[in-house]
Design brief:
11 helices, mainly alpha, three-stranded antiparallel β-sheet, about 260 residues, two-stranded antiparallel ribbon, single chain
């Protein structure tokens, strides 16, 4: 792989790991010509990237947007930053040479919060459950994590920004064609489409659903509860819900999920 990238969820810094051996000498010369330091304009480097690599940049920028907009990530960043500061102070008192701190540091559970596994189980009849261990008795199950939820949202965003028309953004056929050409995190989406029995409805709702879930202190549970409300709105006798779903995108999902968030515990 020519490029690997990730975003630090505590500092919201995007890191790019570029394998220079995969590029020609002209590109390497361009990189070497850049002045290392704060405020360096790296725009010329990004302009020299290929289309897929530019979309990787868009993917990471979406993660940066998540850090700016989703309260759960605010909380995570503040808690982990405090842990780092307090831990550094403690280690400085124990060991003068900071290069040896790793020998004395302990694993901190908080840093693993985004990777904490959770299990979902669901039936097409509207049942959905959340657990910390594998669930039995459901048509389909999923083991996931908050980080995978964030990655799924970024993948859907990646697809939507590649669409040339608004109607394509919720078109399952166009989406599946795109997935064949582009790697993506889709297990959350696949679980939702099975639960809702609709690829189209899942594609319309998965991005605002995940974003709404991270407006709570427990995004895994919020995901399950909000998904249940989507199922109820799409299958129940509510004429207002039916009229809303009959509209073409873009719909005002933001207001819908805001209202639902006020109704969950």
């Amino acid at each position: 792989m020519r490029i690997r990238s990730h975003l630090d969820p505590t500092l919201f810094v995007v890191f790019w790991h570029i394998d220079a051996r995969e590029y020609d000498e002209e590109f390497r010369r361009l990189v070497r010509s850049q002045t290392r330091g704060k405020g360096t304009d790296v725009g010329r480097i990004f302009d020299a990237l290929r289309e897929r690599e530019s979309r990787i940049w868009a993917h990471e920028r979406y993660h940066f947007w998540q850090g700016l907009r989703l309260p759960f990530l605010h909380l995570y960043a503040m808690q982990t930053m405090r842990t780092v500061i307090v831990g550094a102070g403690t280690l400085a008192k124990l060991v003068e040479d900071w290069r040896k701190w790793a020998d004395h540091a302990l694993a901190v559970a908080l840093f693993a919060r985004l990777d904490s596994p959770f299990h979902l189980g669901a039936n097409r009849s509207g049942q959905i459950a959340l657990g910390s261990t594998p669930l039995a008795g459901y048509e389909f199950t999923l083991k996931s994590s908050p980080k995978e939820m964030l990655e799924c949202a970024a993948s859907i965003f990646d697809y939507q920004t590649s669409c040339k028309a608004v109607r394509e953004m919720s078109d399952p056929v166009s989406f599946r064609k795109w997935c064949k050409r582009n790697p993506a995190y889709l297990r959350i989406f696949d679980f939702l489409k099975d639960f809702l029995s609709s690829d189209r409805l899942a594609l319309r709702t998965v991005l605002p659903l995940i974003n709404a879930a991270f407006h709570t202190s427990y995004p895994e549970r919020a995901f399950a509860e909000l998904a249940a409300r989507i199922w109820g709105g799409s299958t129940g006798p509510n004429p207002q819900a039916a009229a809303f779903l009959a509209q073409s995108e873009p719909c005002r999902w933001h207001e819908v999920f805001q209202q639902w968030l006020t109704e969950i515990e």
